[in-house]
Amino acid sequence: MGEIICQTCDSTIEHFEDEKVTKLYADKCPNCSNHNVEQK
Ligand SMILES: [Zn+2]
Questions:
Q1: Are 3 and 23 in contact (CB under 8 A)?
Q2: Distance, CA 5 to ligand 1 centroid (Å)?
Q3: 20 CA to centre of ligand 1 in angstroms
Q4: Please, how many CA atoms are within 13 Å of residue 36, restricted to the half-sphere of its CB?
Q5: What is the 3-state secondary structure (H, E, C) of 1-40?
Q6: CB within 5 A of ion ligand 1: which residues?
Q7: Residue 33 vs residues 8, 12, 25: alpha-carbon distances, Å
Q8: How far, in Å, is the centroid of ligand 1 from the Cα of 1?
Q9: Could you read off the pLDDT tens digit of each residue along the chain, which spans 40 residues?
């Protein structure tokens, strides 16, 4: 099983079928896209 992970908040966005365990990083999940990340 594969996972798509948000690079910004490190949470799992989505699961997808895969033969092996795979982690793909997406730039932003919908939650992070809606709310601008605090700039520090
Ligand atoms: Zn996020």
A1: yes
A2: 8
A3: 24
A4: 3
A5: CEEEEECCCCCEEEEECCCCCEEEEECCCHHHHHCCCCCC
A6: 6, 8-9, 29, 32
A7: 10, 14, 14
A8: 20
A9: 999 999 999 999 999 999 999 999 999 998 888 876 566 5
Structure tokens at 10: 């490190």
- What count of other Cβ atoms lies within 10 Å of the Cβ of residue 5? 17
CA proximity to 5, closest of 25, 28, 19, 27:
25
Domain range list for the chain: 2-32
Question: What pTM was computed for the model?
Answer: 0.72
Tokens for 2, please give them: 């594969």
